[in-house]
Design brief:
The complex is a heterodimer of chains A (115) and B (117).
Chain A lengths: L3 E3 L3 E4 L5 E7 L5 E8 L3 E8 L6 E2 L7 E6 L2 E6 L8 E8 L10 E2 L3 E5 L1
Parallel strand pairs in A: 2-11
Antiparallel strand pairs in A: 1-3, 3-8, 4-5, 4-9, 5-6, 7-8, 9-10, 9-11
Chain B lengths: L2 E3 L4 E5 L4 E3 L2 E3 L6 E6 L5 E7 L5 E3 L5 E5 L4 E6 L8 E8 L10 E3 L3 E6 L1
Classes of the chains: A mainly beta (115), B mainly beta (117).
Chain lengths: 115, 117
């Protein structure tokens, strides 16, 4: 059974704290993604990675950074958390394929609250 | 640039009634289309997808969607819903000309389907 896991389901942090969200996939996928999900806005892509140590900005990268030191692990970092980063964060992975027609597998999400 | 519009943010229906969740997209190139479902407190999972060929695609739990190129739509339908279908549904389009080999998927804003007994 394929699996994408995220380190925490719920997280509460204070403004200014450094926050790490971890994602691990066991499917040997090349591509990994971080999204945030907000009511009425759907999923917005923050960053993605198509290989180890490779990363590219998505649509809303400001205030975030990422790290991919190993193929199975993709970390999202909030250098200094702010209240407007309170959201649901979803990690996903997908194998490399032609034309983007491969299924994207999602983790269960981390609901982050910044006080 | 590609975009996806889900016209209804919430759709309440009675159990065993039919339902249609609307999705329109814009793109200047050929696309792949997807519907994902998110059950309460879970991540998203693929419901069905259109890549090519028959314009009508079906899922294992009775949903179907029809690709209509002239109307740039990919509406999701089910003839008779169950309580277990309560979830949020996301329409998505892939970007074949995406970055490197990752080919981004662009999601709509979601439609929350609530089933009343």
């Amino acid at each position: 059974d394929v699996k994408v896991t995220q380190s925490s389901r719920y997280l509460v942090k204070r403004t200014g704290e450094k926050v790490f969200l971890e994602c691990v996939q066991d499917m040997d996928h090349e591509n990994m993604f971080w999204y945030r999900q907000d009511p009425g806005l759907g999923l917005r892509l923050i960053y993605f990675s198509y290989d180890v140590k490779m990363k590219e900005k998505g649509d809303i990268p400001e205030g975030y950074s990422v790290s991919r030191e190993k193929k199975e692990r993709f970390s999202l970092i909030l250098e200094s958390a702010s209240t407007n980063q309170t959201s649901m964060y979803l990690c996903a992975s997908r194998p490399t394929g032609t034309g983007g027609n491969n299924e994207q597998f999602f983790g269960p999400g981390t609901r982050l609250t910044v006080l | 640039a590609q975009s996806v519009t889900q016209l209804d943010s919430q759709v309440p229906v009675f159990e065993e009634a039919p339902v249609e969740l609307r999705c329109n997209y814009s793109s200047s190139v050929s696309v792949y289309l997807f519907w994902y479902v998110q059950y309460p407190n879970q991540g998203l999972q693929l419901l069905l997808k259109y890549l090519s060929g028959s314009t009508l695609v079906e899922s294992i739990n009775g949903f179907e969607a029809e690709f209509n190129k002239s109307q740039t739509s990919f509406h999701l339908r089910k003839p008779s819903v169950h309580i277990s279908d309560t979830a949020e549904y996301f329409c998505a389009v892939s970007d074949p000309a995406g970055y490197s080999s990752a080919s981004k998927i662009i999601f709509g804003s979601g439609t929350r389907l609530s089933i009343r007994p």
